[in-house]
Amino acid sequence: MEDFHSWNPISVSKSTFSEETSSSSLESNENPKPFIFHCYITSLRTLASQISCLAVHENSLYATSVNEISVFSLTNYALIDTFSCSDSASGLVKFIAFSDRKIFTAHQDCKIRVWQVTTSKKHCLIATLPTFKDRLGRCMLAKNYVQVRRHKQKLWIEHSDTVSCLAVDNGLMYSASWDKSFKTWKISNMNCLESMKNAHFDAVNAIVVSLDGLIYTASADGHIKVWERVQKTHKLLTILDKHTSSVNALALKRDGSVLFSGGGDQIIFVWEREVSANYMVLKRSLAGHGGAILCLIYVNNTILSGSSDKTIRIWQESKAGYCCLGILEGHSKPIKSIAAVSDGDLDENLSVFSGSLDGEIRVWNITISTVFTESAITSSDRD
Questions:
Q1: Cα separation of 216 and 219, whole Å?
Q2: Is the pLDDT reported for residue 12 higher than 80?
């Protein structure tokens, strides 16, 4: 394999300033329509041929690609570090999550690996889950084993297929897998607390947790399940079953009031919390993508969706519902992951990162404003 450090990971190219609106005409000042300005800033590349997951943590962008994780500075997009598991059988890195100084990566070999940043800003492997101590403490009792295939058993604390996604909340980590289950881990001692075997009828593709502790899991079986933690165990509250194909991605307002789901049916569903209706009811659907929805994020009242149609759509809520304000194009293969950070300006100013199976990470700047003034037009003309 070619040495990663022997070539420049950054390729810089800037686009002309662009603008889009969700309507061809301006509305009155009493009901201003959101306007969007977006521009393509630069491209980042890793050695691998595809990007599977992007995440932002402490002014750094983490990108998982095949069996490696690359870390870029958000200040100048320079490569800070690249690290990988020494075990060649670990397979693809599917997901990455964070808890304080710990970094968790989900792998194709059914394991979760825990990393820590050293003083020299290098990443060091500190544990593999389930830990040896956890496995040793349970391996002597027959009741700790479950049937995973016709002639194979595993400890219930072990996943038996690819770990597809992770979620961290309030000292706990949740891992979901293509083995149809999700597990709960205590971060402080890295022990597995619980396993929900056969949580779905097919692979679990996404998991998110709300502030009030509700867990949402999405599966290739077309269902979203809502779980509540009660006295150290989880019970199923309800099933959301409006998708007609695999559910691939979830995004959640942090307060748990709104859930967004996207799947192979090319639709994004918007679910809203109503306690009287068993926690979530379908409010609307967002159509426009020409391929399966593969990733969703919610940030600053904006939804970003990535699809197998090679585009990213930008959605925002208005009085008339959610509208698509713009489309980001340029990738040559499906969009697998999106990350974003707010620039903290008065307008909704976002730096957005899109990762694709084409191996490219694209960096975009997005500004959303509800007031389109003459000064904004003049500014765009100068660019």
A1: 10
A2: no
Averaged pLDDT for residues 209-222: 94
Strand pairing report for 348-356 and 335-342: antiparallel
Per-residue model confidence as pLDDT tens digits over 64-122 = 998 999 999 999 999 999 999 887 778 899 999 999 889 999 999 999 999 999 888 89
Separation of alpha carbons 285 and 315, rounded Å: 12
Q: pLDDT band at 375, cuts 50/70/90?
A: very low
- Measured distance CA(294)–CA(307) in Å, rounded: 5
pTM given for the model: 0.86
Residue 101 burial (CB count, 10 A)? 10
Neighbours of 81 (CB within 10 A): 16
- Could you tell me if 93 and 64 are in contact, meaning their C-beta atoms sit under 8 angstroms apart? yes
Cβ neighbour number for residue 142 with a 10 Å cutoff: 6
Strand ranges in 100-222 using DSSP code E only, listed in sequence order:
102-107, 112-117, 123-129, 145-149, 152-155, 163-169, 172-177, 182-186, 191-196, 204-209, 215-219
Helix (H, G, I), strand (E, B) or coil at 319: coil
Q: Beta-carbon neighbour count of residue 153 at 10 Å?
A: 13
Helix (H, G, I), strand (E, B) or coil at 148: strand
Hey, how many other C-beta atoms are within 10 angstroms of the C-beta on 288?
A: 16
Percent of the chain clearing pLDDT 90 (strictly above): 66
Burial class (CB in 10 A: 0-12, 13-18, 19+), 319: exposed
